[in-house]
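Re-running the complex after MR caught last week's input typo. The corrected sequence lines follow. Everything else is unchanged.
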Amino acid sequence: MSHTLGIRQAQKQKTRQALLDAALGLLEEQSLSSLGLREVTRAVGVAPTAFYRHFRSTADLGVALVEEALGSLHPMIRTTVSGTGDPEERVARAIELIARHVDGYPAHVRFIARERHGGVQPVREAIRDQLSRFAREVKDELAKDPESEGWTEDDLLMLAHLYVDQMLITASLFLEALEGPEEGREERKREVARVAARQMRLIGLGRHHWLD
Amino acid sequence: MSHTLGIRQAQKQKTRQALLDAALGLLEEQSLSSLGLREVTRAVGVAPTAFYRHFRSTADLGVALVEEALGSLHPMIRTTVSGTGDPEERVARAIELIARHVDGYPAHVRFIARERHGGVQPVREAIRDQLSRFAREVKDELAKDPESEGWTEDDLLMLAHLYVDQMLITASLFLEALEGPEEGREERKREVARVAARQMRLIGLGRHHWLD
DNA sequence: CCATGCAGTTAACAACTGTTCTCTGGAATT
DNA sequence: AATTCCAGAGAACAGTTGTTAACTGCATGG
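Corrected-run output:
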């Protein structure tokens, strides 16, 4: 179904991706609101004016980065929440998945955590929308669970938001563990996983007794 | 005990405070990493070089803002967690307190939420330290509760962190509710309070059944 | 009362920013 | 084969930035 792009469009997308990659790199030590367009083009090796062929502004680029960072994550979320096995094992599996994602895409995770409450409104909104989508998807998945019998839609959604926020906090903690020196990094990661697992377990307990 | 400052020191502190206030205002629509020193001095009405008499850099000013925003909050935290009454009422009281704080100091709350994962390392660290202090204080307060009998220190601390993070999320949501148009603002705030209360209640349930 | 200290000023610097306009070379279309 | 299109280059713009140096005037301490 995918129509092969012409040489022209292919080259354009390549530069566009290079701009996104360079920006993501530069954003490891600053916020989007201080990211300059010239800074990005310099890092890529193109003229400043080339930027305008792809984005209206750095805020616009930021919105594109949100799509890149979160857009492809929806299938993963679904499979994380659902799945079989005893609760303890499911929690461990979910946290392991988060840890792997942070390991694989640390810059994306950092970007989302940073700009979720950052200084650029359109980007904040884009992230909020994506996270709301996540919450709704988690809710739908929770609804299938036999444990959710008797739950209102409203209560399921509030639990889903709790889970999503908790995932983000955990991801951010894994990132911090990654940031320090190599020495003891694995241990720091294990400690984060340990605490996160117990928090998830406690939330799971609250869920179990919700209808009492 | 407080020694009356000389005219000189008093005037200095006054400009210093003016710089902090102006910065906090400017930070409502951008992040600290893009805040310029000239921008701040211009807003206050002093020469750019005057800035250096008070702060080494905008990052340094940011650290001072963390102290201002969170330093005076410790007594409040303690009384929020402790206190008597049935659980339902305590939850409602805690959320009411958060709502009031956000109403009274929206710029401070925004600053903390924004810079907690922001682009300026020393500021992130300062916030992390303060929040860790909060968590330890909450833990100490939880330890006094009869419900905490049989809990390990470790488990109490993980619960405390859960509470602190939850408070921050709730505060940030109240802030969002405040940001839109006047129309329906009260309703948005009530909705935030409603969801937050149920999440706190669920966590409280998990806490109650932790030792099962 | 006089000398010192120091908060804030003034002026100047090189470097940087976003944005506009004009141009070019090669892919795409006819 | 001739024409159109368009991603990217180049140069120039006015305005901004952080930092330095030398200054001024006034509160302070001897």
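None of the earlier attempt is carried over here. Residues 153-179 of chain B form the longest helix (27 residues). Residues 8, 11-12, 15, 46-47, 49-50, 53-54 of chain B lie near DNA strand C (CB under 10 Å from a C1').
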